[in-house]
Amino acid sequence: MAEIKRVGIVGCGLMGHGIAQVVATAGYDVTVREVDDATLAKGLGKIEKQLARAVEKGKSSQEDADAIRGRLTGTTDYADLADCDLVLEAITEDLALKLELWKELDQVVKPEALFLTNTSSLAVIDQAASTSRPASFAGLHFFNPAQVMKLVEVVRGITTSDETFDAALAFANTLGGKTPIPTKDKAGFIVNRLLVPYMVDAIRAYEEGVGTISEIDAAMKAGAGHPMGPLALCDLVGNDTVGAIAEVLFTEFRSGRFAQPPLLRKMLAAGWYGRKSGIGFYDYSGETPVENPGLAR
Ligand code: 3HC
């Protein structure tokens, strides 16, 4: 397998921008693709903000921050990923959209390139099998915020060659102190298989009146040592993403543990996706988040 120098990231949203920053910080040349100029500018703007904050806090020199930014190129054109040695997708958790994307990439990206998906729950094989290179396809799953969370799940699909898996693992090991953990291609892999039922159960507990939003969150922080409570975590991950993962796990395992609670469905209908939409379990429009008053209705 060729040495990895140029990396393509598809998607510069919640996960994609963080992954692009991590990969550029590790010294790779990164081309990040978004659907339009405005979305791309928003994602790159988030990276610039993080880099400026690191300089302000004295965690990075201006020179290093400029070098990282200099290694990042934005595009809206798949053809600009043609020469990448590795392409990782980090778009919405929607199989149809991902399959469309791989169809485009398969035609333009050089045949020896590695294809990786950041899917949080969808089977790697379904995406791999849609390309002409299923042996060169694996999963590389980052956690939110990608700049901070250490874990990267490295997923071996049933068609993934040893060479591809080893290359994906080796790549993850170069990403500034990340902890890569191998896992099989089972829906939700390790973390979401365990974390998503916990998150949807927290929503059910709230629905049943076990506690208020803040009480449930404060209890899990103070009682179980979690860095944030489950409902704040839903807002961080995105309630739409939590719902999408829960749906995939429910369909795959046919177990009620993964079923979307009715409240989550209503919140998604209202567009209350969490931090990304400014409102979820909490309302983020003020100086400090407050419980979403709509949920008491
Ligand atoms: N982007 C980049 N950096 C961020 C960030 C973000 N969105 N949020 C926080 N950080 C950085 C801060 O800049 C700060 O950096 P510094 O130490 O260099 O100054 C550091 O993280 C700590 O941040 P804060 O002091 O603001 O706040 P906390 O100490 O409370 O940490 C947190 C924030 C890291 C988000 C912490 O609360 C946490 O670990 N929460 C749990 C997150 C989690 O469980 N993530 C996994 C979700 S599941 C998932 O992603 C899977 C997917 O498939 C759904």
- Name the ligand types: 3-hydroxybutanoyl-coenzyme A
Helix content: 40-55%
Morphology call: globular
Low-confidence stretches: none
Percentage of β-strand residues: 5-15%
CATH T-level topology of the largest domain = Rossmann fold
Largest sheet: 8 strands, mixed
Query: What is the CA-CA span between the terminal residues?
Result: 57 Å
**What do we call the CATH homologous superfamily of the largest domain?**
NAD(P)-binding Rossmann-like Domain
| SSE-based structural type | alpha/beta
Query: How many domains, as an integer?
Result: 2
Mean pLDDT: 97
The level-1 CATH class of the largest domain: Alpha Beta
How large, in whole angstroms, is the Cα Rg? 19 Å
Can you walk through the features of this model?
This protein has 297 residues and is an alpha/beta fold. The termini are far apart. β5, α5 (124-128) and β6 (137-142) form a beta-alpha-beta unit. It is 44% helix and 15% strand. The strands form two sheets. It has an eight-stranded mixed beta sheet with strand order 3-2-1-4-5-6-7-8. A two-stranded antiparallel ribbon has the order 9-10. The chain is globular. It has two domains: 6-184, NAD(P)-binding Rossmann-like Domain (Rossmann fold, 3-Layer(aba) Sandwich); 192-296, N-(1-d-carboxylethyl)-l-norvaline Dehydrogenase, domain 2, CATH 1.10.1040. 42% of the residues are buried. The mean pLDDT is 97. The structure holds 3-hydroxybutanoyl-coenzyme A. 3-hydroxybutanoyl-coenzyme A binds at residues 50, 57, 59, 120, 143-145, 147-149, 192, 195, 227-228, 233, 237, 241.
